[in-house]
Amino acid sequence: MSAREEVLGRVRRALRDVPAAEAPADVAVDRPEPRPTTPDDVELFAERVADYKATVVRCTPEDLSTHLAAALQGVPRLLVPADLPEELRQADAILDDDLTTAELDGVDGVLTTAALGIAETGTIVLDHGPGQGRRAATLVPDLHVCVVRADQVVADVTSAVARLDPARPLTWISGPSATSDIELDRVEGVHGPRTLVVLLVA
């Protein structure tokens, strides 16, 4: 018996007492209620993001442009989504107008916003809505600078899922891209940006 046949056999055995007319939506599932966000959650988010070896820059709306310029210093070819908010636009940035993968590989960094941040896990979630760009544009460049507002931080994964549209493409980012081999030698930048900078605006 192949592994595939074994798995399918287990599925059939697990489902044999389910009525044929029953749909998944008919089964009640207990889900924990989303928890309101507190100022402590914003602090925890910043701490957890930093734990992943990402750079966290705390700023206010008034000094965001100054910190943004500092984060992008030395990035000659910066990519931005075509619908990035006007106040975040950089004069010499390259607008992502469906660049090819080879063209994306030629840029040095990407600047985006986010859908939300999760305090419990230090995760940034992109749903690739306005200002967030398409998935390839956030995975190919070596640097990702992401602007997250404090009011976008939620307490935990349950709260995040409650706010996200499951029909949208979702990218969950927990620090710079990294992997390790069997000897636990860490290698960064294998599956995405080697460097993540989060500008946390509060």
UniProtKB/TrEMBL annotation:
InterPro entries: FTHF_cligase-like_sf (IPR024185), LUD_dom (IPR003741), NagB/RpiA_transferase-like (IPR037171). Residues 101-201 form the LUD domain. SUPFAM superfamilies: NagB/RpiA/CoA transferase-like. It comes from the Bacteria. Pfam families: LUD_dom. This is LUD domain-containing protein. It comes from Pseudonocardia yuanmonensis.
